[in-house]
UniProtKB/TrEMBL annotation:
Compositional bias of kind Low complexity: 47-67, 112-122
Lineage start: Bacteria, Bacillati, Chloroflexota, Caldilineae, Caldilineales
Species this chain originates from: Caldilineaceae bacterium SB0661_bin_32
Record InterPro entries: Lipid/polyisoprenoid-bd_YceI, TTHA0802/YceI-like_sf
Protein name: YceI family protein
Stored Pfam families: YceI
Ranges of compositional bias, category Pro residues: 68-98
Amino acid sequence: MKLHTSKAKSFPTAVKPRLVSTRFRAAYLRLIIFILLAALLLAACGGSDAPASDAEEAPAAADTATPAPEPDPTDTPVPIDTPLPDPTDTPAPEPEPTNTPEAEPEPPPTAAPMEASESAEAPGMGQTFVIAAEESEARFSIDEELFGQPKTVVGVTNAISGEIRVDAANPGASVIGPIQIEAGTFITDNDRRNRAIRRFILQSNRYQYITFSSTALSGMPESVAVGDEIEFEVTGDLTVREVTNSVLFIVTLRVISESELWGSAATILVLDDFELTIPEVPSVANVGEEFIVEFYFVARAQ
């Protein structure tokens, strides 16, 4: 009896767990179904979002694709045609250069030189010629008695500098000088005389230069051509030591070429006019009161 009772008690406990497990499975299935339904709903809602994000990603891709078709900007040469008018605008300033060429007719200065070249026979309109010292010479000559015998003393130097400005169109407007001679460079045939000229007569240690500048030309022809030899007078200021006097030179000028002149000039001066005194020497007597000054020159275009 005890055994039967125990079996009867154990049986219902074995059946109970089966019922519980069955109920649990049913609830579990319902839960899974609910979750699946919720997932489906969420998937449905998310599906609409997903395509939207896909669409957004697509334009992004399209955007990235458009930079790739940046070759299209190379297709934009058509719009580049629109900037092309800008270069055509730059050609618009090109008329400005055409305006400057209009200013180029300003070279009437070129016309003036052309006129000078038309008178090519002339040594050059308003041209400056510089004296070539090594080919030129200044000299003086004075008469005296040396040991009772008549003698002409000549002093020479080529330490001469200066210029001649020639106006071929109007020769009378030409200018000679300033011309300078180094006073201490005159050489005669006697060393004692040379020292006397430097120290006592010209005092070259104090007055280095003898100078001449023209103030007027007379007897000039209306024009000058290459090959001409002309003679005219030049009046100008001659300064020896501290004394300046107006003197007149007779000039002979030869036009060798358009770039070279040869000439000579001469005048007669008085010792007293320039306050020049000759030292008294026992062997020298009867020194002349007048002396001759001469120039021989070669001048070339500067």
